[in-house]
Design a protein that fits this description.
Length: 514
């Protein structure tokens, strides 16, 4: 029998139904796990120790493991979330589903639910039980709680089962709409998921051993040795009494000995290199823990020779793992929303759970936009709304020309007041025979504006820099740095006044031409 893939290509098959048939299930494989009715946890460490996942919970008592654990979780918990209405399907039905689910999320402890879901990267999976209640004519979750993963196993079909008192071996089958199951890199072979804490087990064991021997080493060589010298003929009883006195001397710093005995205090020197071995062992263990949980090291410890570029790259690695965690959380919330919509709003499209970061205004971007704006670039309102996360009705975009025009109008009004005052004082400009200029209003305005303008704050730093600069290139680079520290308000005011003065001068000259 031939199966045609297109007009020219085909494949030979004996049975068309074999395409939809599973050829390699567990029941037909040589794997002994397919013989029993549940899948044992394949974690190699747990199998060797004969323990369950509670052994990994004890690792969280280590300070460095806990720090990495919190850092990984905080990357997701620090983000804001929202429930967005689905654009597909019936708008009216979607609005009803969206309203019901949004009201439900306002009641539930969403922060705790996300925290429970984020246990999956550390323990492989995190079963989340949904306890429903009938609210009017709707079924909605009353509580959503994370349950210990060691209570659950999988059957040969990779279905989750609960190990109860009544069925402790094979576990109980679970009903639909009851358990959300966030998992970390779960596969057909290992439905229990990969555990970051599994990679931390041996580093923590060696680290604790290193601390133990380091403490013994410090106690042994960190304190001075008190040596008592006695005559060769001293018996064991007298030697024991002196040893007891020396032990008390270490604590009390006083001792009484016979005149034929002597006490010497010796420092244990030359042991620094030996002590460094334990410190290096602990540091190496911490680095392995950081890499297992965060994918890198520089976000929890500063290595020697670290650089800004390396730190930035390591932060990006951590961000990638956090993005994976956020996708896992979103997937499970969206599955919950699909359940609620299916049970209550059959023809509606379920809402969508999303994360977003409440970003502060980025100074580098703001400085760049400022420079571009001064160069003549005008950004649209949509740009500020998208990039700086500003609310639509909280701001208005004003062009550069409008801002300068408004400020110039204020200076012009002030100049008109000066002009009026000059006219009242009889200082209005006149022309005599021979076109000899007596006194013009622009001259008066210029003199007063320059008197009010203080150039010292702007010119003095540049003059100082010019004296210190060795060449023109150094002065140019320094001037760019200096410009960023200047008060642009004073410079802008001075430029606006000069522009206004030029405008008024042009008007006077035009009037004089008539």
């Amino acid at each position: 029998m031939k199966l045609w893939l297109n007009e020219t290509d085909s494949i030979d098959i004996d049975d068309r139904q074999s395409l939809a048939k599973e050829i390699a299930p567990r029941s037909r494989s040589l794997d002994w796990m397919g013989i029993i009715n549940f899948l044992p946890d394949p974690d190699p460490i747990l199998r060797k120790l004969g323990q369950d996942m509670t052994v990994y919970k004890e690792l969280l008592s280590d300070a460095h493991v806990w720090s990495c654990y919190q850092s990984r979780k905080s990357g997701t918990l620090s983000c804001e979330w929202e429930v967005a209405e689905n654009a597909k399907g019936s708008i009216r039905a979607n609005r009803r589903a969206f309203q019901a689910i949004r009201d439900m999320m306002d009641v539930l402890d969403v922060y705790q639910i996300i925290t429970d879901m984020l246990e999956a990267p550390f323990f492989g999976m995190s079963p989340i039980e949904v306890i429903w209640e009938s609210a009017g004519n709707q079924w909605l979750p009353e509580r959503i709680e994370g349950k210990p993963p060691e209570w659950f196993i999988f059957d040969p079909e990779n279905n989750l089962r609960f190990r109860s008192i009544d069925n402790m071996i094979e576990g109980e089958e679970l009903p639909e709409y009851k358990f959300l199951l966030p998992r970390h890199h779960a596969t057909y072979e290992n439905p229990y998921g990969e555990r970051a804490l599994s990679r931390c087990f041996w580093p923590v064991v060696f680290k604790r051993g290193g601390f133990k021997f380091w403490a013994i080493f410090t106690e042994k060589y960190g304190m001075p040795w008190v040596v008592g010298k006695v005559p060769r003929s001293t018996n064991d009883t007298e030697r024991g009494e002196l040893l007891t006195n020396l032990a008390s001397m270490v604590q009390d710093a006083v001792a009484v000995v016979n005149d034929d005995e002597s006490v010497e205090i010796e420092e244990a020197g030359g042991k620094t290199a030996s002590a460094d071995i334990y410190e290096k062992l602990i540091s190496a263990s911490n680095r392995e823990i950081s890499k297992a949980i965060l994918g890198q090291t520089l976000t929890t410890e500063i290595d020697k020779g670290g650089s800004f570029a390396a730190t930035k790259e390591h932060m990006e690695v951590r961000a990638d793992l956090v993005d994976q965690d956020k996708r896992m959380v979103c997937d499970k919330f969206n599955k919950l929303f699909a359940w609620i919509t299916e049970l209550n709003f059959g023809n509606a499209a379920p809402p969508v759970f999303k994360f977003y970061e409440a970003e502060d205004i980025q100074m580098e971007r703001a400085e760049r936009d400022k420079i571009l704006g001064e160069g003549g670039v005008e950004f649209k309102k949509e740009y500020y709304h998208r990039v700086y996360n500003l609310e639509e009705g909280d701001f208005e975009v004003r062009g550069k020309a409008e801002g300068v025009r408004d400020k110039a109008e204020g200076v012009r009004d002030k100049a008109e007041g000066i002009r009026q005052k000059a006219e009242d004082e009889g200082q209005k400009g006149e022309f005599v025979e021979g076109d000899e200029e007596v006194t013009l209003v622009p001259d008066i305005i210029a003199e007063r504006l320059l008197t009010e303008a203080s150039m010292d704050d702007l010119i003095q730093p540049a003059e100082t820099l010019l004296k210190k600069a060795k060449n023109l290139e150094e002065f140019q680079e320094g001037l760019l740095d200096l410009y960023g520290k200047m008060d642009e308000g004073k410079l802008g005011d001075l430029m606006q006044k000069a522009m206004t003065l030029a405008d008024l001068s042009g008007r006077f000259e035009a009037d004089a031409g008539h």
